[in-house]
Amino acid sequence: MNDDTLIADPIAVIGGGSIGIAFAILFARAGRPVRVHDPDPARRSVVPDEVGRRLSDLLDHGLIVEPPAAILARITTVSTLNEALAGAVLVQECAPEQLALKRGLFADLDRLAPAEAILASASSALQPSSFADQLPGRGRCLVTHPLNPPYLIPVIEIVPAPFTSEAVVTRCEQLYRAAGMSPIRVRKEVEGFVLNRLQGALLREAYCLVRDGVATVDDIDQAVRDALGLRWSVIGPFETADLNTRGGIAAHAVKMGPAYERMGAERGQHDPWTAEMVAGVVKARRRLLPLDLWEDRVAWRDRRLMDLLVQRRSS
Fold it and tell me: What are phi and psi of 14, to 5 degrees?
């Protein structure tokens, strides 16, 4: 199958809410024909206008080069599942986060979609085994969870079940990369996957700090927006720790590990950083950044932060 054929293969988006519209934009921007189905006629009727407004914003910010009308022309809103699924290479389900609903919907998708189509749920927390384990075609089912909107935030979690075909996972990753996404594979089924577990950990502590009178809601938002979030937009938490302490993440774990252990225990979560855990992270970081390049990477981080501060002042 050549690249032109791949681009011609349609994508079915099931659900016309905010995440469904965002996926439609993502794939149409990449040149794919997209069919959007929602059971609510009122919701279907507003899809073109909502897509058009978002495309206009993308154009105003220089994030698309095609005229919005050309991208919008690739998106068709249809009234039935059969119309949406006809010939689809990927079915992106974006229905509400309700287990019974997803079970019934995936049974319909498995029965009606082309045999080679991947069936992917945008579920934020439900594991694929919870709604696809009994399906005849369960091997083509998985979760593909983005942060909204995916056409602006490129990471997408690919979450297979133990029964999901490896070939399906690989093909799914290829489809999302071709649409401009950066897939990360979640290697075990856990509720919330990676993104929402990380978000959840921060939100749990944020709620507790407000409850305990340590900080206000606005203080915490400012701390993340103008401090932690600023740095995390350049590097992630492991690299942050690695670059924060001379000697790298091994030295950071010695310095800060006991304090973080006490903080966790205070919240009823006693998960110390064991020597084995730290050694595994150190090994991964040193593969990515030998210590003799540590100073150079610190300087790179600081320059990126300077770039961000300049951009903030000009916006």
Answer: -105, 105
Do residues 13 and 103 both lie within one domain?
Answer: yes
**Distances from the Cα of 256 to the Cαs of 220, 223, 250, 276, in angstroms?**
21, 20, 10, 16
pLDDT in tens, 203-261: 999 999 999 999 999 999 999 999 999 999 999 999 999 999 999 999 999 999 999 99
Q: Which run of H or E residues covers position 105?
A: helix 99-112
What is the C-alpha to C-alpha distance for residues 90 and 121, in angstroms, rounded to an integer?
Answer: 11
Which domain range does residue 144 map to?
A: 3-185
Q: pLDDT digits over 150-174, tens only?
A: 999 999 999 999 999 999 999 999 9
DSSP 61: T
Residue 285 forms part of a structural domain: yes
Same structural domain, 41 and 148: yes
Q: How far apart are CA 159 and CA 172, in angstroms?
A: 10
For the chain, the domain total comes to 2
How many Å separate Cα 112 from the centre of its chain? 27
No. of helices (H) and no. of strands (E), the chain: 15, 8
Residue 135 has a CB neighbour count (10 Å cut-off) of 18
What Å distances lie between residue 122 and 97, 98, 184, 297, 306, CA to CA? 9, 12, 14, 35, 35
Any domain includes 190: no
